Amino acid sequence: MPRISVVIPLYNKSQTIERAIRSVITQRITDIEIIVVDDGSTDNSAAVVQAMADDRIKLVRQPNAGPGRARNVGASHARAPLFSFLDGDDEWKPDFLAAGLTALENHPQAVAYACGFDTGVYADQVTDKVSLLTPTPALLPPPKVAAGHQWMKYALDGLHSSSTIVRREAFLAAGGYFDRDRCLWGEDSYLWGQILFMGPVFWDPARHIFYHIEDSDLGFAIKKRDRERPLAKWGYQLMKKMAPEHRKAFFVLAQRTASDDADTLADSGHIIKCFALRCKYRLLRPWRLKADIRRYLKHLQSRGLQKS
């Protein structure tokens, strides 16, 4: 049995998928399996994978259903007690798996390992959040309400799929990634928001991966959203799954996620959905409503300029 199963969701990444896979097969840890799930690619991505001669690589095909479904399908084929999910346009440094497996072996109570990531020239636009949580490697318990919504947001952002290793039992207990409605935004935070409260996480600020934003279809350049993320939509239901001592803190995280999503909905012109989400999470305040209306009017103004 392999020590770890690496799942790579793949959709039209013919230019980067070989780089991603090579970063896995050149790891210091070699007792691995690599499950690439082709999510209905229309380019030659699958052919690139098939051309790579390594018997640890398994290619699974499915009709296009979104990244959450692709990752979950990959996990269903996985045999190892540990899972990691590398995006097809990201890249691991050679010591990522060694660092993560060592941390989890030394701390069996940890449900997951998360490290920092290197964004290169985009570092001023996308900040590595793990270094904001702890300056040195540390095993930290699930956050309490007193940690505050900003710390929880950093923790949620720090659990980036490409830079995290999770125990099989924790992944299954959370139900995996959100995979309904071909979700393209927040399918990962639905999972990691639950993992954060299942037990301690080992945080490693060392930047063991390259996060290639320039190759990402879902990077910060996409601003138009027409719905909230699953963590915000299903936050109350997920809260009921939590141990009683974690429910209040989880609500703070879901509330912060909903607040950010409401901002995005207003920016995208969905003002009614914005107001409904704020009402759902008890976030209706006069100053917030004024800010939302300003965002909405700015959106309308930009549309008018685009049409003229």
Explain how this protein is built.
The structure is a single chain. The protein is built from 13 helices and nine strands. It is of the alpha/beta class. Strands 1, 2, 3, 4, 5, 6, 7, 8 and 9 form a nine-stranded mixed β-sheet that branches.
Describe how the helices and strands are arranged.
Elements: E1 4-10, H1 17-25, E2 32-39, H2 45-50, E3 57-62, H3 67-77, E4 82-85, E5 91-92, H4 96-106, E6 112-118, H5 130-133, E7 138-140, H6 148-158, E8 164-167, H7 168-174, H8 187-195, E9 201-210, H9 230-233, H10 235-241, H11 247-267, H12 271-280, H13 286-307
Helix pairs in contact: 6-11, 10-11, 11-12, 11-13
Outline of this structure?
With 308 residues, this protein is α/β, with parallel strands linked by helices. It has helices at residues 17-25, 45-50, 67-77, 96-106, 130-133, 148-158, 168-174, 187-195, 230-233, 235-241, 247-267, 271-280, 286-307, and strands spanning 4-10, 32-39, 57-62, 82-85, 91-92, 112-118, 138-140, 164-167, 201-210.
What is the correct CATH architecture of the largest domain? Alpha-Beta Complex
Structural class by helix and strand composition: alpha/beta
Name the average pLDDT: 93
Distance between the termini: 62 Å
CATH superfamily of the largest domain: Spore Coat Polysaccharide Biosynthesis Protein SpsA, Chain A
